[in-house]
Amino acid sequence: MTDLLDLKTLVPHRGAMLLLSEIISFDEGQAATRAVVTETWPLTTAAGADPLVLIELVAQTAAVNNGYEIIRQQGPERDHRGWIVGIKSARLFVENLAIGTIIEIHSRNQFEYDNFREIAGTAKIAGQIAAEVTLQLMQAEQESIAPKGT
Fold this sequence. Notes:
This protein is an alpha+beta fold. Helices cover about 20% and strands about 40% of the residues. Strands 1-2-6-7-8-5 form a six-stranded antiparallel β-sheet, covered by helices on one side.
């Protein structure tokens, strides 16, 4: 089944908000992705992207393996979107991300309980850590996110 899963299946973002370029690897507990900074990214000017986008890259990378885990456990028809993300901590070690910069992102579930996850993530540029991020994710129950009357 994993060969049928790609960014558009696992990550709910579309258009300019889909910042990831490719999935490197994933399983039920971790994911690795790659992204290339483009001028269409949010918080980006001709001078480059604000490093705050590194937090979003970790969140989108976490969506890869956590979306996969929901699909694996509950089937492909299960809506795995709708995560609420909180930033527990973020350390950014760069001041700017030049257009064309290649970023490798890793996320790992540190803790899981029901629909709650705590994620540890890093973003690296040329092998050097550009960000260390800890996120907390909560997913609403499917019944509570379904439109009324369904």
